[in-house]
UniProtKB/TrEMBL annotation:
Cellular localization per UniProt: Cytoplasm
Keyword Disulfide bond: no
Protein name as catalogued: Elongation factor Ts
Record's signal peptide: none
Location of the region described as Involved in Mg(2+) ion dislocation from EF-Tu in the Swiss-Prot/TrEMBL record: 83-86
Molecular function as annotated in GO: translation elongation factor activity
Gene: tsf
Major localization listed first in the record, in broad terms: cytoplasm
Domain of life: Bacteria
Length: 197
C-alpha cells in the first residue's frame, strides 16, 4: 500500500525542518509518509551536506547584537558564511539574531570545546575529583569524565540545547541552516556583557 504524499504534508515538513520542498517530498516518499522518519532522514542529509561544506571558506557574514529586556544583558556575535548573497537573506539574519538571543539567555563560555581555556578545564577536573573522593577507584575516572563532559556541554555554545527548541542543540541548528542555505557557516566569536558581572 502506497501512501499519498500531499502538499500539506510537504508544507508541514518544510515548516518543521526548514529543508527545501523537493527534499521534503523525497523524504516523505522514502519514509512512506512517516513524519518522524522523514525528519530523521532530512537531519542525516543535513549533517552530510554540512560535513561536505565544512572545508569551504566562510569569509563573509554578519555581526549582530542583542540587548535583553531592560538593558541588563547584551551580546555581540559574529557568524560567517561564504557569500554576501546569503549574509543578506532574512533567514541568515534571523539565524544570527537567534544565536545572539541564545547567548544572552544561556551564558556560554566559548563557542566550542577547542576554545575553552585549559585552566578552566583543569579547575573543573579538580572539583570533579574532589566530589568523587571515597568512591571505588575504578569508578572515579568515569565519574570525573562524566562531570567534565556535562560541564563542557553546558559551557560550549555549540553543545547547548537551543533555547527556542531544547530538543535541538545549537550545533544541530547550525547544521540545518548550512543544509538549507547551501553554504558553510560558522559561529566565529561572541562577547556577552551583563550589568554587575
Amino acid at each position: 500500500m502506497s501512501v499519498q504524499i500531499n502538499a500539506k504534508m510537504v508544507g508541514e515538513l518544510r515548516e518543521s525542518t526548514g529543508a527545501g520542498l523537493m527534499d521534503c517530498k523525497k523524504a516523505l516518499v522514502e519514509s512512506e509518509g512517516n513524519f518522524e522518519a522523514a525528519v530523521e532522514l532530512l537531519r542525516k542529509k543535513g549533517m552530510a551536506t554540512a560535513a561536505k561544506k565544512a572545508g569551504r571558506d566562510a569569509s563573509d557574514g554578519l555581526i549582530d547584537t542583542y540587548i535583553h529586556l531592560g538593558g541588563k544583558v547584551g551580546v555581540m556575535v559574529e557568524v560567517s558564511c561564504e557569500s554576501d548573497f546569503v549574509a543578506k537573506t532574512d533567514d541568515f539574519k534571523q539565524f544570527v539574531k537567534d544565536i545572539a538571543m541564545h547567548i544572552a539567555a544561556a551564558s556560554p563560555v566559548c563557542v566550542s570545546r577547542d576554545d575553552i581555556d585549559p585552566a578552566i578545564v583543569a579547575a573543573e577536573r579538580k572539583v570533579a575529583e574532589g566530589q568523587a573522593e571515597g568512591k571505588p577507584a575504578q569508578a572515579i575516572e568515569k565519574i570525573v569524565e562524566g562531570k567534565l563532559n556535562k560541564f563542557l556541554s553546558e559551557s560550549c555554545l555549540l553543545e547547548q540545547a537551543f533555547v527556542k527548541n531544547p530538543d535541538q542543540t545549537v550545533q544541530e541548528l547550525l547544521t540545518a541552516m548550512i543544509a538549507k542555505m547551501g553554504e558553510n557557516m560558522q559561529v566565529k566569536r561572541f562577547a556577552r556583557f551583563q550589568v554587575g558581572a
